[in-house]
Design a protein that fits this description.
The protein is an alpha+beta fold. It has a single domain, classed as Alpha-Beta Plaits, CATH 3.30.70.100. It contains three helices and two strands; from the N terminus they run H-E-E-H-H. Strands 1-2 form a two-stranded antiparallel sheet. The protein is globular and about 35 Å long. The chain starts with 5 loop residues before the first helix and ends in a 22-residue tail after the last helix.
Length: 88
């Protein structure tokens, strides 16, 4: 994305995360911004890939699927958690 678009995209991410969090299987959502202004990353943790597919298909979540349009190109990369290490 153009660096000038990053602040608006971050705003929209914050506005739309509440809608996404209404999905009972979304465990958490974290947003990160590149310091050069060219990217943001949304790390969402789901109970399963099938549950994520619901977000992509269910009409209720349409705004969540499209908030970045006109500001940035979107890429989905799906990962599986293979290990978690916690400091207590």
């Amino acid at each position: 994305m153009a660096p000038k678009n990053q602040p608006r995209l971050i705003e929209l991410e914050r506005e739309n995360v509440d809608i996404a969090l209404e999905h009972p299987d979304l465990m958490s959502a974290n947003f990160h911004r590149a310091l050069d202004g060219t990217r943001t990353a949304n790390y969402g943790q789901w109970r399963s890939l099938d549950n994520f597919q619901t977000l992509l298909e269910e009409p209720k979540y349409k705004s969540v699927r499209q908030y970045w349009q006109g500001l940035a190109e979107n890429e989905f990369h799906l990962y599986e958690v293979v290990h978690i290490e916690s400091i207590e």
